Amino acid sequence: MNANLKYSPVDGIDIVSFVKFLYKGMNKFGPSRVINKLKEFDSYDHYQNEQRELKDRILNVIADAYKISPYTILHSKKRGKITQAKVMAMVLFNNYLDVRFKDIALMFGKKIASVRKRVSVFKKVDNYPRPAGGESTVLINGDAKIFFNMGFMEKYEQINNKIKSEPLGSDTDANIPLSGTH
Distance between CA atoms of 124 and 120, rounded to whole angstroms? Predict the structure, then answer.
């Protein structure tokens, strides 16, 4: 046996053992079932990449609208417009991505209940008739202050429309880093 075949252990399995394992699987289940399963993995990876690109796109559009970096949205502990940007990201992630509240909470270092509450209050506010003139002091159970103050809903509409109108992979978000100290 050629010594070059046993060159790369992956998770404790060398290449020869892996090929033997795959051969046994193909004999047991048939080549077409094994190939179909491999195609599922490929499509799942493609789906994951699309979700990642969409997440990056959402962060970049929000960062552009608030004139902060995407890194700041995810990692800063400051208040004010950064908090607004974080809530905006939570709402848009919930709208566009196939993620649970738990996943969103982990991204922002928040509790699941906090994310769930902000998203549910946003949905109530979004369905609430807005008065002419924009700003309002009307609160739903005292929780909707952030959505009615500082033009949050107007900014949401702008950001949401921009996300819908610009395709993934456009040049506008190609050079914006998502990590680092900005």
Answer: 6
